[in-house]
Each structure stands twice: as structure tokens, then as C-alpha cells.
Design goal:
The chain is built from 9 helices and no strands. It has helices at about 5-30, 45-60, 60-90, 90-95, 100-125, 130-150, 155-180, 185-215, 220-245. Helix 2 packs across helix 8, helix 6 (about 130-150) runs antiparallel to helix 7 and helix 8 runs antiparallel to helix 9 (about 220-245). It has a domain at about 70-240: Up-down Bundle (Growth Hormone, Chain: A), CATH 1.20.1250. It is a multi-pass membrane protein. One of its GO terms (cellular component) is plasma membrane.
Length: about 250
């Protein structure tokens, strides 16, 4: 498959995703009841951010989940350049057809999984807590890194798709929790703070782990990334257990 064909395929993927989100948005606004006038926040920027952080911290486990999802987002962003390095060094076991097609296929699987999780996952896993989804996502991240270490693309793809679906499901659930926890007049500031955290983690983690790759090699990098995920998993399990114990 040529690069021009891949560009067309990529454009069509974005068009389909855009159409799906437009359909969901239209149905949402059709069924959404009319809201009355809401109060406007007149506090300063830093005071608003401090208040947002205070309210997020007050909700038991919410801050921990925000940080875990941010780290998972960073892991997902880091995996993309690392898998390219793994494929380039192991073409016999990691390439499907051609190198460019394999990279496009991985990108398509990740994009489709995230979109599917955002649209369908919230309905399929509506009774599943955000803590459980975060635990499953972190465990799947560790398995994905394991498939990269054993260099098997056919095991990597379905597990990567599952990870993308669960991460795509976690984001709307996290937003819902924030909406229920934070005052409406500072909700936009809180969402902005959350989006900033989510956006920043990916390039920061990518820079750190690609630098490690250049210095020590891909195997050590993947091992360190796996250890990071194990630490995240232990943290979220501990927080979840603590909250369930206090609730009981």
C-alpha cells in the first residue's frame, strides 16, 4: 500500500469518526432538556483553579483516578513511537504486509478502539466503576508491553484494541464524575485543568522514554515502562481497596 493510499485511508477514518461523533452530539441535544440560567464565576483565575483542585481532591479517589488516566494516556502516547522501533527491528515477526501498512493498521486500531469506547463502551460498561476500568486498563497496558517484548504483532493488535476501548470508556465516565462533583460555575475551569493534565502527560512521557531508548535500547525502555505501569496498578488497587473498605 502506497503512502498516498494510506493518506486516503487515514482521511476516511477521520471522516467516519467525525460522522459518528456528530450523530451522537445531535441525538444528545435532541433529548437534552432545556436548562435555566446558571451562575457565572467571577473569581480570579488562580483562585478558581485552587477551588477546582480542592473540590476534585475532596471527592474520594477522584484525584487518583485523574492521575492514573493521565498516566495511561501518556503510556498510550509512548507506545506508538516505541512500537515503530520494535517493528523496524523485527520485521519478520512484526510486519503485516508492509511496514507502512502495519503502522497505519496500528494507528487505525487505536483510533477505532478509543472512538468505540467513547460511543459504545459507556453503555456496555455503565455498571462498571471507574476504578475497575482503570485497573483493567492498567493491566492491559502491562500485557501490551509484554507483547512488544515478545515481538508478536498478532497478539499485540487485539490487546491494544481492548486497551484503547477501555481508555476510551474511562474518559466519559471521568467527565461524568467531575460534573457530579464540581460546582457548575467552575466546571469549565476544572475541565480545562483536566484536559491540560491529559494533554501534557503524553509528550512528556514520550520524550522521557524515547530518550531512554536512544541511550539504553528498546528492551530496557519497555521494561521500565512496564514497571511504571505496575506501580500505577498497585496505586489504583490500593486506593480502590481503601475506598471500598471505608464505604463498608
Amino acid at each position: 500500500m502506497s503512502y498516498s493510499s494510506l493518506a486516503i485511508f487515514n482521511a476516511l477514518t477521520f471522516l467516519v469518526a467525525g460522522a459518528l461523533f456528530a450523530s451522537v452530539g445531535r441525538n444528545y441535544y435532541k433529548t437534552r432538556p432545556q436548562e435555566g440560567t446558571t451562575s457565572v464565576n467571577e473569581e480570579g483565575f488562580f483562585k478558581t483553579i485552587a477551588l477546582s483542585f480542592k473540590q476534585v481532591k475532596k471527592a474520594k479517589g477522584l484525584l487518583a483516578v485523574v492521575l492514573v488516566i493521565a498516566l495511561l494516556n501518556g503510556v498510550l502516547g509512548t507506545i506508538e513511537p516505541l512500537i515503530s522501533i520494535v517493528i523496524a527491528g523485527n520485521k519478520s515477526s512484526m510486519v503485516i504486509g508492509t511496514y507502512s501498512f502495519t503502522i497505519a493498521l496500528i494507528g487505525g486500531v487505536m483510533t477505532a478502539g478509543m472512538a468505540l469506547g467513547s460511543i459504545v463502551g459507556t453503555k456496555l460498561f455503565k455498571n462498571m466503576s471507574l476504578f475497575t476500568i482503570a485497573i483493567i486498563s492498567t493491566a492491559l497496558s502491562i500485557v501490551v508491553i509484554g507483547t512488544m517484548l515478545i515481538k508478536n504483532i498478532f497478539i499485540y493488535l487485539p490487546i491494544m484494541a481492548s486497551l484503547a476501548i477501555f481508555i476510551g470508556t474511562a474518559s466519559p465516565k471521568l467527565t461524568q464524575w467531575l460534573v457530579e462533583t464540581v460546582d457548575q460555575n467552575i466546571l469549565s475551569s476544572t475541565m480545562g485543568m483536566l484536559n491540560t493534565i491529559l494533554v501534557v502527560t503524553a509528550p512528556v512521557m514520550t520524550t522521557i522514554f524515547t530518550t531512554i531508548t536512544a541511550s539504553f535500547g528498546i528492551t530496557i525502555t519497555l521494561t521500565l515502562l512496564g514497571v511504571t505501569c505496575l506501580m500505577v496498578l498497585a496505586t489504583i488497587v490500593k486506593v480502590s481497596y481503601s475506598i471500598n473498605k471505608n464505604a463498608a
